[in-house]
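Purpose: get a first structural picture of the assembly so the mutagenesis plan has something to point at.
Setup: two entries, given in the order below. No constraints added.
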Amino acid sequence: MHKDFDINSLKRICIVGAGLLGGSIGLALRAAGFVGTRVGLGRRAISLEKALACEAVDEVTLEPAEGVRGADLVVLCTPIGHFEGLLDAMRAHLEPGALVTDIASTKVQVVRLCERKLPRTVQFVGSHPMAGSEKTGVEFARADLFELALCIVTPTPRTAESAVVRVRRFWETLGAYTMTLSPGKHDRLLARVSHLPHALATALVTMSLTEDAIDLAGPGFADVTRLASGDPAMWVDILRTNRRGVLSAIDRLTAELQRLRRRLERDDAAGLHKWLAGAKAARDAWISSRYRKRILPS
Amino acid sequence: MHKDFDINSLKRICIVGAGLLGGSIGLALRAAGFVGTRVGLGRRAISLEKALACEAVDEVTLEPAEGVRGADLVVLCTPIGHFEGLLDAMRAHLEPGALVTDIASTKVQVVRLCERKLPRTVQFVGSHPMAGSEKTGVEFARADLFELALCIVTPTPRTAESAVVRVRRFWETLGAYTMTLSPGKHDRLLARVSHLPHALATALVTMSLTEDAIDLAGPGFADVTRLASGDPAMWVDILRTNRRGVLSAIDRLTAELQRLRRRLERDDAAGLHKWLAGAKAARDAWISSRYRKRILPS
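Result (structure tokens, whole complex):
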């Protein structure tokens, strides 16, 4: 599958932000046979020292100019809020022809910012590897974090086709399978399957606190609210940068709940059964196709 | 903890409905040292034969009169929709002084029905053991299903205190820990931590089907929607018999989502952070206290 791309055609890869994801990219690169240099660029010496100690990177620097100099590939793994400052600091020092990508969970605003800030001499395409954990920090990084994960690559009309191909091959080398979507479609669909579910998990926990209802909660509640234990700062960024998608998903959900309300008010047993059975069938089919896909990634 | 109650003070226990829960009660009784007779009362010979084959019961019958005759304890484990017919069929045959309980997931309507239908010569108190699985059928029954599960017992002003004590001890003998709540409070709080979460899981799956958004869903979506794979017929009963609680929980959630909408529209980063961080702290505290409680049940 990767025969047209050799990870060792790259000599120097700059990982910006050495946390769980950035560190896992470093470890996965080494596991995939990358023999070049993995440079960790960060804002805090202590995190960079930890990344070195974990062998997630080979060199570290606090200087954006130094980090990107000579790099064939730059992967932005920092919180979205740091992107603008970083892009300003690194843009003049990027190698002509360098490939730049990111791992942010929302794409419209991030891709627009990167396209505006990066020089035309480099190739940029956004990525969203759907892998992670509630845990944060390079100490939880894993070489197999991207194994069979889906990575969505989000080209725009400005993106060079060769950048799309190379970035997809990069993620596939780390074990992911990839697909492309426009940034707009990415954000609209992810609002429904990721961002709204996160907000709902938070809303359910908040609602359960009055009258100590949470004391009656069982394992079902633990599952349905697991996302609410995610990193608040990261989720503030996600909700703010996909505000349109999340607002539209809230409206869809509100309409869905109003339909449920009417079925309950009419005591419509057949309608309730059809709704519950339809969702069960769809979810059961998704779960089994998901595992099939993971056994035989396309 | 159970020194004032010996499960073998009961000679004959009638389990009505030999599915996952009824069968698990039978297996747990044997594991707890019950030496009397476990009678399985059901509507389909095939299910009863399976219950016998699993050794979940000692005797089976399709006749309500025969099932409850001589029983010190009757546990109703059938779908809520069968309660009325069963109560009519068994009421004239219950032993004076017999204890009757049930395992239904909603309590106001069920307890009202049982109190209306059962003769004053028997003692009734409702129960809701919070244990189960997406799986149904006696073949999935387990002797340890109630181990460290919470069982809520729901007395009313009509309930004899001795019935509450005996039913609590019964569930504690099977490994559960117990608490009491009025049927009304039970239904109001369970709507928030169980019935609405189930409806939301269903709504999220339904919403994810347009534009094949579900194809982008990951492990977070699998968790948040796990409840949607539950048995539709059981959930129709739960939603219909706790209509008031569920409608009020929908209204609370809608208000919570409107607050989120306003925070997003104002781009209120501090408000979003406070909301997300508050829910994370509450959930993390709940998860750890839950496990503490389970290690040292009260």
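Chain B has eleven helices and nine strands.
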